[in-house]
Amino acid sequence: MGRHPKNQPTKASIQNGSPTISTYEKYKEIKRKYKELKKMNNELNEEYGRAIKEARKCKDERDSLLDKLSTNYVNGESTSSMDHQKRPKNSLIVYNERPTAQIARNIVNDIPAVSSSSAAKRGPGRPPASSRNVKAYHVDKDTNGNYVLPVEVGLHTILSLGTVAYDRSAYHNDRYIYPIGYSTNRPYLSMIDPTRDTIYTSTIEDGGDNPRFVVQAADQPGNPITASSATGAWTPVIRQANSIRNRKHSNAASGPDYFGLSQPTVRKMIQELPNAHKCKNYRMQEFEVHPIGTRGRGKTSRKAKY
């Protein structure tokens, strides 16, 4: 037997009449429960460790699949483009503008917010995403009711909200609206200098039946990347930026994230544009508007961080 802990009652002290028998029995019962809890805690720690390893494994598999998906998509788009049209002289990468936007939107995270299968899994107690309020931040408007631009939202500086082409179905889906003329800046790793970042301007242009997504790096003027989806436009940026840094990160990209379209504040601003309510497939979102100063010390700022 080991040494008795300090202040631990012993049988000898009991015989001398110090504590009662019931006190000693209580001590033994507490000690027994302590050992049980310690064993349970160890088992939970082991289970937690296994869960972490499994989650990492799943994430690695997901990144690998997304990388293959984006690679196959971009390679397929560029090959088709070279077969059917001559690449413009001033373009870094140009992808075919055939009606594949719907396929492109399903790569990575740019997928419909609600589906019948996902609603069934969610159960009756939880409302669909489109009916839950999302937090957005206040942006000033001018006397005509238009948002004062440019405005900083997270990493993005919104330069223009553009105009809504409600009568062309490819210019919106149930989750996003793609306004013609929408433009935003954001910093990201340079594709030509591994030691520097640069500013990228993302723009949505009128491509006829389908929108054209353009990404222009500030340190490569005159060499835009053009694609038929936001994901297709940003994937080569991420791939090249990782490549010159010898990074083995996943090259998968969520186009709406990099275009700023997934930011709640930006989504709110876009769905308030004229004719946005006429987009038949888009689901209007309810937003909780918060003053920007409530996140800090009451200072009013044009910058909303997420």
UniProtKB/TrEMBL annotation:
Residues 27-61 form a coiled coil. Residues 1-21 are annotated as: Disordered. Keywords: Coiled coil, Nucleus. Its main location: nucleus. It holds the Pfam family FYRN. This is Transforming growth factor beta regulator 1. GO terms for biological process: regulation of cell cycle. GO terms for cellular component: nucleus. It comes from the Eukaryota. InterPro entries: FYrich_C, FYrich_N, TBRG1. Gene3D superfamilies: 3.30.160.360. It is found in: Nucleus. The lineage of its organism: Eukaryota, Fungi, Fungi incertae sedis, Mucoromycota, Glomeromycotina. Residues 7-21 have a biased composition (Polar residues). Transmembrane segments: none annotated.
